[in-house]
Amino acid sequence: MGREHRRTATHGRGFAARLAERLGPPGAVDYTNLATTGATARDVRTRQLPVALTRDPQVATVVAGMNDVLKRTFDPLQVRQDLVWTVSRLRAGGAVVLTATLPDPGRLLPLPAPLARVLAYRVGRLNAAVRATARADPGVLVVDLGRHPAVRHRSSFDVDRVHPGPHGHRLIAQAFALRLAQAGLPLVGAPSGPGAAGDLDAEVTAPGTLRHSYWLLSVGLPWLAGRCLPGGDRNAYHTENRLVSHPRRA
Question: Which residues make beta-bridge pairs with 141?
């Protein structure tokens, strides 16, 4: 929802900025966020990847595909090809790549059964594509956000119950940092958490049921039906993907 794009210090609200804090002491990590609202896996491959490669990253996070899932023209084979290509090119340049499976919006929202079935199928194909990027390559680290315990808690999400809220971004950063540590990459400091010094999100609370219900009826259901079911319109209320590079230090 654009939180990562505020030009603040690396302890800003997004998960990737929080993760960057753990990769080195202050001033030692050159952090770049190439994500754009509404980008598809193809956009990541054709627009973001070439820029990332020029930065010679040591660590890159690639979380993409939900925008593809929410399009009537969803092509699981194309998504798989785009994700595999993006990750393989980053790996060829020597980067450790962090990626993630994603939760099924149909399990997070009270959706009509036909729409829920469509989303479940598509997210299943997306997550299969994500896992394919890591096949037999220890340098591709997958975090299973689709089954993360936080998915069951409203406090993890923004008003749409799909995008992470401030608390969700903290949890994602912690999950990625843990995966890096498991792979033997050295980290510094402690993960950002509620009440941390300079944490602008510490006082933000999760949107309540009334606000979410209003959003669901006025925005969510009409938009999802229009995007995912045949005959719908093309109104665009976009999710985000992330491709964040942490270039090598000279």
Answer: 98
Q: Which residue matches tokens 């933000």?
A: 204
Range list of β-strands (E), 73-230: 96-101, 140-144
Assign 59 to helix, strand or coil. strand
Token look-up 């006025």 returns 218
Q: What is the pLDDT of residues 103-154, one digit of tens each?
A: 887 777 777 888 889 989 999 999 999 999 999 899 999 999 888 676 666 6
Phi-psi region of 2 (alpha: psi -120 to 50; beta: other; left: phi over 0): left
Residues 171-203: tens digit of each pLDDT: 888 899 999 999 999 898 765 444 343 343 433
Q: How many CB atoms lie within 10 A of CB 26?
A: 11
Burial class (CB within 10 angstroms; exposed 0-12, middle 13-18, buried 19+) of 234: exposed
> Please, what is the end-to-end C-alpha distance for the chain in angstroms?
33
Residue 117 identity (one-letter amino acid)? R
* Residue 131 to residues 75, 91, 141, Cα–Cα distance (Å): 17, 15, 9
At position 77, the amino acid (one-letter code) is: L
